[in-house]
Each structure stands twice: as C-alpha cells, then as structure tokens.
C-alpha cells in the first residue's frame, strides 16, 4: 500500500518539530543548571537551527533590579566585534577595494610611518589572523591607570607612536593575540571607504540586518545589563574610542542571532563575506585561524567561533555551517571558564 505524500510530509514536519523541541529543552536545561550553580551571573542565550530561532535567559539586569534578562538585554560582546570587523574587511575584498594579501603600507592613515624593516612585510590577512608581529597595547598598565575605562588612554596618537616606534616585528608569522591589529583594520576600512568605522558597520551590517539593538557610540539604554568583574564588583561598559573595531560593540542575543542567520545564508553579502573569513590563514599545532575567527575541526564537525571578554562581561559565538546551526552566549560577568564550559557542554551533549 502506498503511503500518501501529504501524510509523509506531515510525519516529517512533526518529527522535525519534535527534534527541534528536544534540542532547545536540552540547551535550556544546561543553561539553567549553570545559572543555579552561579546565581549571581546573568545569562542570555540565542540559538538558531535551520533558520528556527530559540532564546533562553536567566538572572536580572543587575542585583538591585527585578527586571529579568531576556534576548533583548544589552551586553558587551567585546572581542566578538572582531568577527564583525573581519566580515567588513571581507566585504571590501569582494568589492575589490582591497585584497587579503595586500601589504598594509598604502592603506594606513598618514600618521603612520613604518620603519624600513617593516615596509612591505605585513599583510591585511596578517592583522586579521593575529600574526603581524606588531607590539600590542599593554592592558596591564592601562588597567592600573583606570580600572573602569582602561582604553580611554588609547588614542590615535598613542597608537601611531606605538607602531612607528617599532623597529622589529616580534615573532612575525606566529600567533600572538592582537588588539592593535584589529584597530588598524578598522582604520584601514575607514580609509578605504572614506567613512568612520561607526558609519561603515551601520551601513553594511547593522542596518541591512535590522540589528536595532546593536549599539556603538551611544549605548545608554534601559535594558543594559550591569557588568561585573571576576570578583563580583560592578564594572562599567567601555566607552567608544579608536579601539572600537577590536572590541567595543554592544549587542544582544536577538541581534546576534540575526547576524548568525545572515552568516549561514551564503547568498547574503554578510554570508558571502563570512565564507572568505572561514578560509584558513594561520595554522600551528594548537589552532587554526581564519580572518578574525577560530576554526575547530574534528572527524565530524567544523566549528567557527570567537570569544569575547571585557572587564565585566564574557561572551562567545559559534556556528556550524554544514549543519546550519549557530549559538551566542552572553554573560554579565567576566567569566571565560563558565561561558566556555556551557558551550562545550551544549556542543558535546546536544549539537554533535
């Protein structure tokens, strides 16, 4: 006896729905367990699976508030900003305004005068894959000067002096995490497009994707979470300045899921650019890097991810292009161990 096509379609739909429900229930259980073990930390999670969105959150905006965190609550995404900057750079590559293997010399603002030893040495891709060898900002010293706003001391002038005074690249071609690298990428984008980084990210990512709660220069909003340092003390959100392309965007789970949806859509401008960032530009025995993104591969899965830590918040974004899922985890305390443990548990017990 033949099974009616409509019946088969209905069975498949119910099966798919049940499978989706099962995944979201398991994710919620993991997040709830993490919150119960860390009740002082607010958590917001966004998950996308084959275009279907799911959100869960625990905790309040701050200890004195009864307002619960949800998918619209604002967090610092910190260094997740770097994948946005890399995507912008990849869009510029697609538009033939720049190439990944171009040397940075002709694209830097005029205040930069590279030492002879550095000329025609550093590529755009070197900046975006943390192997330029340039000196980086000394956050330890900056934190001592201003524990709440350490990047306030970083200006266009101090950055130019840091780069111009460099006579030898340290470990060029080897991985060394770099805030300066992505700050320079932002300035290169500004020169390429003749606009501010704020204008560029708005015109090419925030506005087209309708990410209405992704904030740059102005983030004084009612649904902003209160950040906490590892000891539980209140920590201010970083103010917008020249280092913005490396880590100063603020957003929420809902908007970052919109970004993930665009990334997984290979027909969108963001998705086409993401494919470029996912190419391997650096590899050693410990890691593989694309442009601004970490690549983690095993026998069955390839994951693309980027973590972020400000002084008072932690976050991580991860997606599997082949299986069409992505996840964003946001915490209102700097706690890289907790966010990584949650991601590992979700990946290992649910998504794989």
TrEMBL record:
<dbReference type="Pfam" id="PF00144">
    <property type="entry name" value="Beta-lactamase"/>
</dbReference>
<dbReference type="InterPro" id="IPR001466">
    <property type="entry name" value="Beta-lactam-related"/>
</dbReference>
<dbReference type="InterPro" id="IPR012338">
    <property type="entry name" value="Beta-lactam/transpept-like"/>
</dbReference>
<protein>
    <submittedName>
        <fullName>CubicO group peptidase (Beta-lactamase class C family)</fullName>
    </submittedName>
</protein>
<keyword id="KW-0732">Signal</keyword>
<feature type="signal peptide">
    <location>
        <begin position="1"/>
        <end position="20"/>
    </location>
</feature>
<comment type="similarity">
    <text>Belongs to the beta-lactamase family.</text>
</comment>
<feature type="domain" description="Beta-lactamase-related">
    <location>
        <begin position="36"/>
        <end position="336"/>
    </location>
</feature>
<dbReference type="InterPro" id="IPR051478">
    <property type="entry name" value="Beta-lactamase-like_AB/R"/>
</dbReference>
